[in-house]
Amino acid sequence: MDFTYKKNEKLKSKKAVDQIFTNGKSISAYPLRLVFVKNNTSLKVGVSVSKRNFKNAVHRNRIKRLLREAYRLNKSVLYDNQLTDYAFMIIYNHKDMPDFELINEKTKKLFHKFIEQNRDVTNF
Question: Which residue spans traverse the membrane (predicted)?
Fold first, then answer.
């Protein structure tokens, strides 16, 4: 498994982001929320932090770096379960500055919840 976050994995299309927020489903592992939608391409991931909770761009960018790093380290869980045809948006919903351990733990929990939910859908 390649532990990189390459350009082709990044969610950049405005259409795709709009589609995620209009048609997507959501899973939460507080303070993180995962909004996802099935797509026809490979796995695409974006991260977001609310400007309402963090006024300084420095703080928002730090949290986004932590979210991307946690995704990068834990994406093998998704690839091992062949869940690569989705577009994700990972959102941080809290007012306090997190540390990496919290973000990493909650990202793992979020991915496992997603896998369990996806297994339930494919069994029907």
Answer: none
